[in-house]
Amino acid sequence: MTWYTTDAARLLPWTGAEGQPCYLIGDGQGYVSRVADTMESVQLGMADDLLGHVEDLLDDRSATPEQLRYVVARLSESLRDVHRIARSRGARLEGVAARAGHPG
Question: Which DSSP string corresponds to 17-76?
């Protein structure tokens, strides 16, 4: 039987009830890990698409304040997702380095 410690916890790319972070303990090979990998990929792709839309909107001198507020709200959501992904991946890299005996 394999026991996993909290240093192997993965911050998942979604939140739980009341916006609380969700974590997964495991080896990174299971079903939930694959779903998380897919969701991270989708979130990063959406962020990239959003950046392109923002550039177009900023070049459009006729963009309304409502359009700009809307895109800023979407940017905020996207940045929150990308930040969560970066924290999750950074923590996993630090865990790998620590288990290998290298400084994080």
Answer: GGG-EEEEES-S-SHHHHHHHHHHHHHHHHHHHHHHHHHHHHH-TT--HHHHHHHHHHHH
